[in-house]
Structure formats: C-alpha cells, structure tokens
C-alpha cells in the first residue's frame, strides 16, 4: 500500500493520480502519479517586490541597545550591526560576497551569513539579498536555501543583475562585485 507523503515541496506538487495498476502477485491496486509539475506558487511578482516594506534601522548607540529584533526576539549584537552597516554600502545593481565582507570584518563567511540570516531589516534598508557566495552563486535567503531563493533572485534581477540557469551570476557582471567597505 502506498501512503501519501506528508512532506510538501515548494517546487513540485503531485497531480491527482491518473492511472492505477494491478500488482500481478497479490492483485492489490497501487496508484502511480502520472506526472509532477512545478508549483511556483510562491514566486514573487514585480507587484510583490514593489510592496517590500522599508523597516526602521536604529542609528544611535542608545537606540541599538534597546532595539529588539522581530526575528529573534532579542537585541542585535555589535558584530551583527557591523555586518548590516557594511551591507548597506552595497549599491543597487551590485553585489558582494560573504567572504569579502568577512575579510573586511576579520571574521568568517559563516558568521556573516548567520548575521544576515537574522537580519530583521531585510530587504530594506539592509539589502542582504545583495550578498552572494564567493563563487558568485545566488546562495540562500532569509535562512533558506530553497523556496525563498526566488525572492532573492527576483530582487537582484529587478536591480539589473543576471543569472544563468544554475543560479550563478552571468559572465560580464563581475565588475559589479563590491569588495571595499568602511566603518
């Protein structure tokens, strides 16, 4: 007997079974899905992107100490604020990498990625969607490597970046890489 899967994929949904076959040994019926089809229900549209909320970013040291992140329900660390400050320096239509940011901060790319994953100011005023992996792959977005990548890709394409079918920045766009920061 086949059981219905409880796992839902953001990429594929099973269509209703179209065929049943008999198992010749014991004559029990098994249902076979006829096909799988992409279910891009969560793909943002231009209209969705234009509704992106601009969030309050505390500027003073006093405001930063009192600010509670809506994502983590805790205060934001000094390191996380540094990551957000240099991320703000990446202009629209450009990108940086976790490694370039971590080199500037003298930390590790994962530390930068973790800070950006917790970013309560995304996508604006802290454009963490503009940070890619060092091999210029789109990487994750909002702590997710699957369904939310559509948002990241849509935001970057709206800003003028182009990607190949595998999710890498297209050749000729390398000049948009930002490596120089200041605090």
From TrEMBL:
Keywords, comma-separated and alphabetical: DNA damage, DNA repair, Methyltransferase, Transferase
E.C. number(s) listed in UniProt: 2.1.1.63
GO molecular function: methylated-DNA-[protein]-cysteine S-methyltransferase activity
Presence of the UniProt keyword Transferase in the record: yes
Highest taxon listed in the record's lineage: Eukaryota
Gene3D superfamilies assigned: Winged helix-like DNA-binding domain superfamily/Winged helix DNA-binding domain (1.10.10.10)
The keyword Protease appears for this protein: no
Pfam families, alphabetized: DNA_binding_1 (PF01035)
Name used for this protein in its record: Methylated-DNA--protein-cysteine methyltransferase
Organism: Furculomyces boomerangus
Biological classification of the source: Eukaryota, Fungi, Fungi incertae sedis, Zoopagomycota, Kickxellomycotina
């Amino acid at each position: 007997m086949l059981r219905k899967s409880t796992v839902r994929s953001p990429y594929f949904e099973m269509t209703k079974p179209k065929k049943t076959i008999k198992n010749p040994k014991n004559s029990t019926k098994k249902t076979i899905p006829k096909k799988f089809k992409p279910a891009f229900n969560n793909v943002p549209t231009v209209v969705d992107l234009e509704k992106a909320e601009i969030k309050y970013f505390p500027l003073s040291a006093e405001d930063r100490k009192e600010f509670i992140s809506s994502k983590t329900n805790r205060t934001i660390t000094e390191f996380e604020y540094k990551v957000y400050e240099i991320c703000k320096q990446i202009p629209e239509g450009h990108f940086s990498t976790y490694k370039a940011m971590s080199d500037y901060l003298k930390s590790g790319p994962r530390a930068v990625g973790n800070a950006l994953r917790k970013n309560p100011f995304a996508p604006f005023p802290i454009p963490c969607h503009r940070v890619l992996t060092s091999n210029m792959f789109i990487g994750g977005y909002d702590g997710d490597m699957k369904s939310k990548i559509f948002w990241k890709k849509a935001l970057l394409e709206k800003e003028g970046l182009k990607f190949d079918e595998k999710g890498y920045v297209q050749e000729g766009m390398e000049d948009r890489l930002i490596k120089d920061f200041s605090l």
